[in-house]
Amino acid sequence: MRRYVALVHAGKRRTYGVAFPDFPGCIAAEAGFEGAVESAARALRFHVEGMIEDGEKIPEPRSLEQIQADPEFAEELEGAVVALVPLLRRSC
Predict the structure, then answer these.
(1) How far is 39 from 52, CA to CA, in rounded Å?
(2) 63: burial class by Cβ within 10 Å (0-12, 13-18, 19+)?
(3) pLDDT at 82 (0 to 100)
(4) Are 6 and 62 in contact (CB under 8 A)?
(5) Mean pLDDT per 10-residue interval, the chain, length 92 residues
(6) Phi-psi region of 70 (alpha: psi -120 to 50; beta: other; left: phi over 0)
(7) What is the pLDDT at residue 13?
(8) Which pTM does this prediction carry?
(9) What are phi and psi of 48, to 5 degrees?
(10) Where are the domains of the chain?
(11) What span, in angstroms and rounded, lies between the C-alpha atoms of 75 and 89?
(12) Fold adopted by 3-86
């Protein structure tokens, strides 16, 4: 199962936002850290399903070290908690 790096940021009132460096525009938000990560897994699956329908290539997961070395994500990494989120298969 593929796992992608997710950057989790604490917001106001115990809400958390999650973004995926490998999937620009794929985000999730939820109350509570665990809920945010679970919501992120669903958002990732939905995002990838859309990419597949559009005939887009699904990127291989980058390691945390690769993302940390990319200056594009320097600001996003500040204050983030890193989680590895699995790309879940669609349930029948």
Answers:
(1) 20
(2) exposed
(3) 96
(4) no
(5) 95 91 96 95 96 96 96 92 90 50
(6) beta
(7) 83
(8) 0.90
(9) -65, -40
(10) 3-86
(11) 31
(12) Double Stranded RNA Binding Domain (3.30.160)
